[in-house]
Amino acid sequence: MSVSRALGFTAGAVLGGLSAASAYGSVSKSSQMFGPSVYRGPGTRKSIALTFDDGPSESTPDLLEYLEKEGVAATFFQCGMHVKRLPHVAGQVAAAGHEIGNHSYSHPKLPFKSREFIRQEFSETQRVILAETGVTPMLMRAPYGFRWWGLREVQEQLLLLGVMWTVIGFDWRWPADKISGYVLGRSSPGGIVCLHDGRGTNIRPNIGNTMAAVREIVPRLRDKGYRFETVSGLLEG
Ligand SMILES: [Zn+2]
Known about the structure:
Elements: H1 3-14, H2 20-27, E1 37-38, E2 47-55, H3 60-70, E3 75-78, H4 80-85, H5 87-95, E4 99-102, H6 115-133, E5 139-140, H7 151-158, E6 161-163, E7 167-168, H8 176-185, E8 191-196, H9 208-223, E9 227-228, H10 231-235
Parallel strand pairs: 1-6, 2-3, 2-8, 2-9, 3-4, 5-6, 7-8
């Protein structure tokens, strides 16, 4: 199943009552309908950005240890509720030199939510991340990639650029070899890879398949001559 088809199926369950244009605007990786957003870098260097959503989780330190061993800088789109829950882990991510982005507070599906609800989700997360890591995020990613009315104003107010992805690893449901094969087959200079160091709102999620996939993806991409950059670094061109 292609990414757009897979996302289309997911989106269909959430966005059932919407016009095709609004549904497309909400989920399409290249859509600017609900706020400024990127899904890849300019690709002027042979670089790739690994991104991890839904953390921090209890397993994030294992991932940090591996990334440090490999000298890989990544970008973590964190949820406010998990930063609040595991502030020391959020701090470790920042201290290791990774970039931190805003992935909402409670990982809701934004379509049909009020502007005030959406504002709260991102402004509270911005506040919690700053308090616990000392970093003010410049990037945001909507949960499930679903964007909605009100997000543009929030992005303008908080100075947040939206980040989608070039390839998503479906690591919440696929085994490691399928994730790594899919990501490696779709990697290109300037690409943004979406994986997860958490699983939505879950406490103590099992991310063993993601960890195994990352251990396969990093050396294979490096063998092909890729460097790893944060999303902000990748966008500098
Ligand atoms: Zn997420």
